[in-house]
Amino acid sequence: MDQQTVSPARRWNYWLGGKDHFQIDRESGDRIADAYPAVRVAARQGRAFHNRAIQFLAGEAGIRQFIDIGTGLPAPDNTHEIAQAIAPDSKVVYVDNDPMVLAHARALMVGSATTYVNGDLRDPGAILTSDEVRATLDLSRPVGILLIAVLHFIKDDEQARGVVRELLAAAPPGSYLVATNSTKDFVSPEAGALYDAMLAAGHVDAWPRDRDTFTRFFDGLEIVDPGAVAICDWRPDSEERPTPAEVSMYGAVGVKTR
């Protein structure tokens, strides 16, 4: 297990208050938090958006199959826990390429209705044809594809769109895409410039996208209400919530209609 390279999954775990991270992850997390103090709020809001989106898919949309790519380290309210609380027959395939994530997954979550794939979002074909996906899911039936806080690790817009297109091409009508991406749309020009400088220096690795670029991930889909919005504003369950600038991340859910 590489303790000398920053892991986005372990850094996210650090921001959420978890214990599964190394010194290099904490140093990276602190450096980002120094420039963007609300990052821990953003991490918690990302998890809350995930929870609300799964509740929508398993409840209102009736989805019973999920592929969660870039799942990160196990935490309270994992995809299978939320979905199976609503529909016990829900099946979930988690995908990640972090060895610590995989080790935790094998110890805690693998079962007949829940499994993990050692895979990378940049190679969707390998994910879709994996033994675990074939054994767990029926891709002739609708599936929820979750790309939460992972697309922004692909710098090239066309490559990222190509990944989404390939995943959706394997899913039948009635399937859903849930995605988020960091953005600078809500912050001041000064904060945006500081983030650009950190990107150039290699101190951050999440590539922000504006709303128009983000919504292109949903080309050909029908985006459900309230559309592509700051994650704190997507079907909120409380009137008291952070501002879009504090989360600086877009989220949306779209359905494949044909």
SSE string, helices as H and strands as E? HHHEHEHEHHEHEHHEEHE
Low-confidence stretches: none
CATH class: Alpha Beta
β-strand percent reads: 15-25%
Q: Compute the number of helices.
A: 11
Using only C-alpha atoms, the radius of gyration works out to 17 Å
Class per helix and strand makeup: alpha/beta
The total beta strand count reads 8
- Identify the CATH architecture: 3-Layer(aba) Sandwich
Rounded mean pLDDT is 89
> How is the biggest beta sheet arranged?
8 strands, mixed
CATH superfamily: Vaccinia Virus protein VP39
> How many angstroms does the end-to-end distance come to?
43 Å
Molecular shape: globular
The portion of residues assigned to helices is 40-55%
CATH topology: Rossmann fold
Short description:
The protein is an alpha/beta fold.
Question: How would the blueprint of this fold be written?
Answer:
Blueprint lengths: L7 H8 L7 H13 L3 H20 L6 E5 L9 H8 L4 E6 L2 H10 L5 E5 L5 H5 L2 H6 L7 E4 L9 H13 L6 E7 L6 H13 L9 H5 L5 E3 L5 E2 L13 H4 L1 E8 L2
Parallel strand pairs: 1-2, 1-4, 2-3, 4-5
Antiparallel strand pairs: 5-8, 6-8, 7-8
Helix pairs in contact: 1-2, 3-4
Features:
258 residues; Rossmann fold; 8 strands
Q: How would you characterize this protein structure?
A:
Helix content is 41%, strand content 16%. With 258 residues, the protein is an alpha/beta fold. Strands 1, 2, 3, 4, 5, 6, 7 and 8 form an eight-stranded mixed sheet that branches. The longest helix is centred in the N-terminal third of the chain and has 20 residues.
